[in-house]
Each structure stands twice: as C-alpha cells, then as structure tokens.
Design brief:
This protein has 258 residues and is α/β, with parallel strands linked by helices. The protein folds into 2 domains: 206 residues, NAD(P)-binding Rossmann-like Domain (Rossmann fold, 3-Layer(aba) Sandwich), CATH 3.40.50.720; 32 residues, no CATH class. It has 8 helices and 7 strands; from the N terminus they run βαβαβαβαβαβαααβ. It has a 7-stranded parallel beta sheet with strand order 3-2-1-4-5-6-7, sandwiched between helices. The two termini are 29 Å apart.
C-alpha cells in the first residue's frame, strides 16, 4: 500500500536507535525525506548513513538534547533550510529513570518534565509555522504507562499524562489547519528500555521476559516495526481524519474501555 508520503519531510527524534530509528526507517521506505536527531553523534551518524544507503532518501541529521530550550528551534530550522518545508513531526525520546515516586527529588521531576513535556511543547512551537503552510501531522510517542499506570514508572506516568492532555487540546486547535495530532502508547516493545525492565530488581531476564509475555493477550513482546507501521499510517493522508487520539499498541495489554 502506497501511503503517499514520497517527498514529504519528517523530523524524527531519538532516531539513532530503537523506536525512533524504526519509525525513521519506515518513513524512509515510503520515500519520506528525513531530519533525524539524537544526543549521541556516532550512533546517529551511522543511522543516517544506513537510512540513506538502504532507502535512497535524503537524510539530514544533527545532535541535540531536547531538554535544551534552544535545540528545538535549531532542529526545525535545520530541516527547513535543507528541504524547504516540513510535513511531519514525530516527538520521540527516551524515558526518565525508573523507581519509587518517593525516591525522586525536585531535580529528577524537573528533568522528567523537560524531557517528556516541555520538549514537545517547544518542538511544536517551532514547527507549527511550517506545518500550517500546507497541513501535516504531529505524532507523539509515550508509553502504555501513561494511560495504565505501572508502579515504578511514576516520572513517566505523570509527565506523559500531561503530554496526552496537551496533545488532545492541540488537536482541537489545529484541526482547522489540516494538522492531525495523535499520541502512540507502546506496550512492551523489544528495545533497550525493556531490557532495563527485565533487569529491574535483580530478576532473571529470561524469566522476566516470559512473565511479561504472559501478561500480553497476544502472547508476545511487540516489535519496533509494530510501532513504526502505525506511525506511518497516522502521519500519512490515509490517517489524516484520525486526530486527538491516544492509541495503545500493545497486543491487548491495555485493559480499559477508552
């Protein structure tokens, strides 16, 4: 299925590995031109070169820390200078540390807010003038814990819940500009983040993986491709009428009715 994304321009965060790289690769396979960024240069440069080599699309890249208030405008400016337009913004980064809520001080909370909420607010603020020029998509990556809290994930739960509220409101305000706004809430996905969960509490990683697989109705841990395929649909013309949604991609793990 051709998603009509050829020659569109997308910014994808955290694209040196994991879900971010998977999303970038899926969009590149559709012919989308890319601006990718992450904190660590060697892995990011390697990712950019691999995307260009595999998919034959133009890829711009820059190192950035989205907790830095100046980096968001720099990323958007770099993309527009290279490609002359912007159609898609994918907000994706890592996640704050795990631990009991009572163990985190004000500094930890402030870092989590900067990483999971303010970073998106600033990226959107910088991108909107360009997205409004022709319409487009804003897609946020959070986690299943944002809509079904998990003990030990308090920093993520609180800040990503705020992100969902922000995104829902934003979708109402941007609909008239032909911009859809959605948030993906991945469940257990096979990434380095999940490896940390496996190792939490000193449990055997294989036993922990089996335990998590048993929790999922579909009986397996999700793949990066499971997330990337949904992202590609939602940011394409085929998904343009879907907006304001928080969508679990989790093999049935989410138990709520919303």
């Amino acid at each position: 299925m051709d998603l009509n994304l050829r020659d569109k321009v997308a910014i994808v965060g955290g694209a040196s590995m994991g879900i971010g790289l998977g999303i970038a690769s899926r969009l590149a396979a559709e012919g989308t031109r890319l601006m990718i960024f992450a904190r660590r240069e060697p892995a990011l440069k390697e990712a950019a070169e691999g995307l260009q080599r595999q998919h034959g699309v133009a890829v711009e890249w820059c190192t950035a820390d989205i907790r830095d208030r100046d980096d968001s405008s720099r990323i958007v400016q770099r993309a527009v200078e290279r490609f002359g337009r912007l159609d898609i913004l994918v907000n994706n980064d890592g996640a704050p540390p795990l631990g009991d809520i009572e163990s985190f001080d004000d500094t930890a909370w402030q870092k989590a807010v900067e990483q999971n909420l303010f970073s998106v607010i600033r990226m959107v603020r910088a991108a909107l003038p360009h997205l409004k020029a022709q319409g487009g998509s804003i897609l946020n990556i959070s986690a299943i814990s944002a809509i079904q809290p998990i003990a030990g994930f308090g920093l993520s739960v609180a800040t990503w819940s705020g992100l969902i509220g922000y995104a829902k409101t934003l979708s109402l305000e941007l609909a008239r500009h032909r911009i859809n706004v959605n948030t993906i809430c991945p469940g257990y996905i096979d990434t380095t983040r999940l490896q940390k969960v496996f190792a939490a509490g000193g449990q055997d990683p294989l036993a922990m993986r089996k335990k998590l697989e048993d929790e999922v109705p579909m009986g397996r841990i999700g793949s990066v491709e499971d997330i990337a395929n949904m992202v590609a649909l939602l940011v394409s013309p085929a998904g343009a009428y879907v907006t304001g949604c928080s969508i679990p991609i989790d093999g049935g793990l989410f138990r709520g009715l919303r």
